[in-house]
User: Which sequence fits this backbone?
C-alpha cells in the first residue's frame, strides 16, 4: 500500500516533543521540513504523479531513512 510517512505517525510517543521542537528549534525545523518534502516527493513518484528511475527512488528512500534517524536522534537527545 502506498502511503505517506508523516513523522508524527512514526513517533507518536514523541508527538508533544516534536511540536515543541518544531516551533522552538531552527535545526529541528529544517530537519522536519526536509523530511516532509522528501516524503512528499517519494509519494508522488510511487503514485506515478512524477517520474523517476528505480535507482533514484531507492536513493530517495534511503535519504528518508537517514533523515528519520536524524530526527529520532534529535528527539532522543533533547
Assistant:
Amino acid at each position: 500500500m502506498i502511503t505517506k510517512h508523516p513523522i508524527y505517525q512514526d513517533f507518536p510517543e514523541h508527538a508533544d516533543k516534536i511540536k515543541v521542537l518544531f516551533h522552538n528549534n531552527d535545526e529541528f525545523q529544517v530537519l522536519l521540513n526536509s523530511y516532509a518534502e522528501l516524503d512528499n516527493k517519494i509519494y508522488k513518484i510511487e503514485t506515478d504523479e512524477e517520474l523517476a528511475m528505480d535507482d533514484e527512488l531507492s536513493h530517495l528512500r534511503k535519504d528518508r531513512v537517514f533523515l528519520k534517524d536524524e530526527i529520532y536522534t534529535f528527539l532522543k537527545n533533547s
